[in-house]
Amino acid sequence: MNADKEKWILLVVLSLIWGSSFILIKKSLDHFSPYQVGALRVLIAGIILMPVAISKYKLFPKNM
Fold first, then answer.
1. What confidence tens digit (pLDDT) does each residue in 15-44 have?
2. Disulfide check for 32: which of 36, 42, 58, 62 has CB 3.0–4.6 Å away?
């Protein structure tokens, strides 16, 4: 796959993810409070990013 096509596919995927998040937030506010929605977003982001943090743990500086 050439680089231009890959960039366009990535742009479309990111646009769908970003746009759908606003729709999901709007729908979730019908059932949850704004604080609960914010907490769920932070929790889900932490769970999704945890494997990346674990895989990069050895690269963290040990001495400050």
1. 998 889 889 899 999 999 999 999 999 999
2. 36
| Residues near 40 by beta carbon (within 8 Å), at least 6 away in sequence | 28, 32
Q: Which of 49, 47, 40, 46 is nearest to 21 (CA)?
A: 40
Q: How far is CA 12 from CA 49, 57, 59, in A?
A: 22, 31, 32
Q: Give 25's contacts (C-beta < 8 A, 6+ positions apart).
A: 37, 41
Query: Has residue 64 got a pLDDT over 80?
Result: no
CA dihedral 30, 34, 35, 37 (to 10 degrees): 60
**pLDDT for the residue numbered 1:** 73
